[in-house]
């Protein structure tokens, strides 16, 4: 996946050069390579220092002009962090995000919040504006500076991978909540046939959760330093969990009696609700690894229901999901 993304970015840059009558040179190739392989917020001077280690003949003006070209073609994005320097960060297939900046040590934390984006969009509509771009910077004093602790060396994180990490954790929270619900419903249900289907649903959901956990472990193993990256994706946990009711709410007269048909109708309703939620969530973001996590989860929710529904007619195999 990374190789494919690098190839796309390289082709995008070369196409921009051709379309604007600019020459493709070995120096520009090197600047592009180093920028694409360096995460974080780089000033012209930062990138120039890295490039000089590979080619001492490259001048800072060439670095500056190349960064401007990378910005113009959508590979890089300019940001200002309040210290008088213009910096550049990765943009292509990276989620649009905002920054929290320490005014003393200039540490930067990246974050994205769909709820914040929703409020901003609503305000813009109220004023009859058509938004072109926006950026939010929050300045304050970090905990290290407030407590006069040594400030850790700044690290650059790949925001796309951090986003994917948090998207997987979000999906796992939803899945854990669903397992708790179905497990509780199975324990309470006094209808034997309905209980058997609920128990099968639990096993299918547990398999899905294990797959998500495996995907997260694989991502963490490949993504250097992801464990220490601050939370990037902020979402409303209460809204997420409210999609799954409490099992006790299904009781009638302090008893839960759900037959097979009622259980399947309930499972279909909850699967569709979760699928729609994650599809709508995915639509808030451009093409990124995290967005693909949401879309895949939405599709798998429907697929899980279809598995359970198909096995409801096969009692002998209900306790043996794939």
* Spatial strand order of the main sheet: 1-3-2
Total helical segments: 11
What's the number of extended β-strand segments?
6
Q: At CATH's second level, what is the architecture of the largest domain?
A: Up-down Bundle
**Could you list the spans in which at least 5 consecutive residues all have pLDDT below 50?**
316-322
Largest sheet features: 3 strands, antiparallel
Q: Give the averaged pLDDT, no decimals.
A: 90
CATH fold descriptor of the largest domain: Ferritin
Global morphology: elongated
Return Rg in Å.
25 Å
Question: Could you characterize what this model shows?
Answer:
By secondary structure, the protein is mainly alpha-helical. The chain has two domains: 1-92, Orthogonal Bundle (Arc Repressor Mutant, subunit A), CATH 1.10.10; 159-317, Ferritin (Up-down Bundle), CATH 1.20.1260. Helix content is 56%, strand content 8%. It has eleven helices and six strands. The protein has helices at residues 2-19, 26-36, 44-52, 60-72, 114-126, 143-146, 159-188, 192-222, 237-242, 260-282, 289-311; strands at 42-43, 76-80, 86-90, 98-102, 108-111, 137-140. Strands 1-3-2 form a three-stranded antiparallel β-sheet. Mean pLDDT is 90; it is low at 316-322.
Summarize the structure.
With 322 residues, the chain is mainly alpha-helical. The chain is 56% helix and 8% strand.
List the helices and strands and how they pair.
Blueprint: H1 2-19, H2 26-36, E1 42-43, H3 44-52, H4 60-72, E2 76-80, E3 86-90, E4 98-102, E5 108-111, H5 114-126, E6 137-140, H6 143-146, H7 159-188, H8 192-222, H9 237-242, H10 260-282, H11 289-311
Helix pairs in contact: 2-3, 2-4, 3-4, 7-8, 7-11, 8-10, 8-11, 10-11
């Amino acid at each position: 996946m990374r190789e494919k993304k690098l190839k796309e970015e390289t082709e995008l840059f070369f196409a921009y050069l051709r379309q604007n009558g600019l020459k493709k040179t070995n120096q520009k190739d090197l600047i592009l390579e180093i920028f694409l392989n360096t995460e974080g917020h780089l000033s012209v001077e930062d990138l120039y220092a890295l490039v000089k280690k590979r080619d001492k003949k490259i001048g800072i003006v060439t670095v500056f002009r190349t960064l401007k070209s990378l910005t113009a073609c959508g590979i890089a994005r300019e940001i200002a962090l309040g210290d008088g320097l213009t910096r550049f960060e990765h943009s292509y297939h990276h989620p649009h995000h905002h920054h929290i900046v320490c005014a003393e040590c200039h540490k930067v934390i990246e974050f994205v919040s769909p709820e914040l984006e929703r409020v901003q969009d609503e305000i813009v509509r109220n004023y009859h504006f058509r938004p072109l771009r926006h950026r939010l910077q929050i300045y304050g004093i970090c905990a290290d500076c407030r407590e006069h602790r040594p400030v850790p060396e700044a690290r650059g994180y790949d925001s796309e991978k951090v986003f994917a990490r948090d998207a997987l954790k979000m999906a796992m929270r939803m899945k854990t909540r669903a397992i708790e619900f179905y497990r509780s419903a199975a324990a309470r249900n006094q209808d034997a046939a309905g209980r058997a289907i609920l128990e099968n649903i639990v096993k299918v959901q547990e398999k899905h959760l294990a797959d998500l956990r495996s995907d997260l472990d694989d991502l963490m193993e490949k993504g250097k330093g992801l464990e220490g990256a601050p939370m990037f994706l902020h979402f409303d946990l209460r809204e997420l969990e409210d999609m799954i009711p409490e099992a006790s709410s299904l009781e009638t007269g302090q008893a839960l009696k759900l037959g097979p048909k009622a259980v399947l109708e309930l499972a279909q309703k909850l699967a569709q609700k979760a699928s729609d939620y994650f599809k709508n969530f995915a639509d808030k973001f451009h093409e990124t690894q995290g967005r693909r996590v949401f879309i895949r989860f939405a599709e798998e929710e429907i697929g899980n229901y279809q598995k359970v529904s198909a096995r409801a007619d096969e009692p002998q195999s209900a306790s043996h999901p794939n």
